[in-house]
Amino acid sequence: MFDYNFHWRPVMKSLPDLLEAASLTLQVAVLAMVLGIVIGLCLALARLHLRGPVYWFATAWVELARNTPALFQLFFFGFGLGAFGLHLSPYLIVLAGLTFNCAGYLAENFRGGFKAVPETQIRASRSLGMTPWQAYSRVVIPQVFRIVYHPITNQMVWAVLMSSLGMLVGFRELSGETQFFASRTFRIFEYFAVTAVIYYAIVKVILLSSRLMAARLFRY
Amino acid sequence: MISIRDLHKYFGALHVLKGIDLDVQKGEVLSVIGASGSGKSTLLYCINGLEAIQDGAVTVDGTDVHAKGTDINKLRQKLGMVFQQWNSFPHLTALENVALAPRIVKGKSKAEAREIAAMQLQHVGLGEKLDVYPGALSGGQQQRLAIARALAMEPEYMLFDEATSALDPELVGEVLDTMRLLADEGMTMICVTHEMGFARDVSDRVAFFHQGVMEEIGPPAQIFGDARSEHTRKFLANVR
């Protein structure tokens, strides 16, 4: 029969530590997203407008990021580079892995976004005397941003959840910290249940603020 | 003056413009008519350098549009263009649509650009729609917005590429009225158009294009009343 006794007290005692780890989770996810957006934008433009080695580099990045397990990508930056004598801190491993993965997915979102803005928008801009850069930055990219806004939100959620893989490379973000306490106290179920609630709350806040921001940003 | 000499344009193997010679004087309104695919729209794109040319030359007030050293972005400020698919910027209000280029291309202050924009929107009859997004405007209103946007750069020439072809029939009139207004104000205009009434009533000259060749050019009375080319007569018989 069911004879497990729940003990919540140890979890509650380490709640401050868990919340601190949660802020680390959020920090690494946000940073990976910011870098991922910048790199993803470059990858998308390279794939749309360039040929030769840069095109192939960008394509290889996107293919690897999207078609291999995220965990393996993290392992590459941890154990892979480690084998060549380059030892990154757990924080950097997770940041690099998440950035690599997010940039790949975002690149494809951006590529779709750019393709959805008609070529004639650029023609109209250029006919007014805008430089190609002005046409892109003032006319095309704001429209692309709206198209990719919700996919970016999804990716942000995914980045938060995916950062939990950090515990497998020794990073004490929310999951790593939970694992640490759980194995010390053997209250495994209790710890992970509380952590799940924290993840859920983080994601909810992200989704809610994204929706509020969209209402302010997109009036058309 | 816009001056076109022996202009040849190819799209791949397709010879779209086969040696065009044409001068458009300041203050003139020229309508360009002809069947689809006769090269009339391409001609406009060659005039403001949106399309490269393979042979010949286009000069605007003495500046060679397609020469290597030409500052094309500067030159385009003289050449307003209005497209068939009006191409308003959907993420900007009517006012912002019009104010954008004066601000970032001409370097006007934000206040100055908005003032110019409001004035031009008033000019085309959209004074009530300053803060409306294009998505909430009719096709005719969006096309007038596009005209205001081009005018805000204070161009010396206006190029109209079938400005009314994509509009619902009941919206054509308001755009043509705006074009008439510009013509009355003395704007130099090249209008690629299927509106024969406009071509006849407003133009100083009408050019007929047929398969990449300018078959004939002359005053509207002559083109519509006494065309020399068999092709012109046939075309006009079919559109009327």
From TrEMBL, chain A:
Principal place of residence: membrane
Keywords attached to this entry: Amino-acid transport, Cell membrane, Membrane, Transmembrane, Transmembrane helix, Transport
Source organism: Leisingera daeponensis
Protein name listed in UniProt: Amino acid ABC transporter permease
Membrane topology recorded in Swiss-Prot or TrEMBL: Multi-pass membrane protein
Subcellular localization, as worded in the UniProt entry: Cell inner membrane; Cell membrane
UniProt-listed Gene3D superfamilies: MetI-like
TM segment ranges: 21-50, 70-88, 191-214
Entry similarity comment: Belongs to the binding-protein-dependent transport system permease family. HisMQ subfamily.
Annotated ranges, domain ABC transmembrane type-1: 22-210
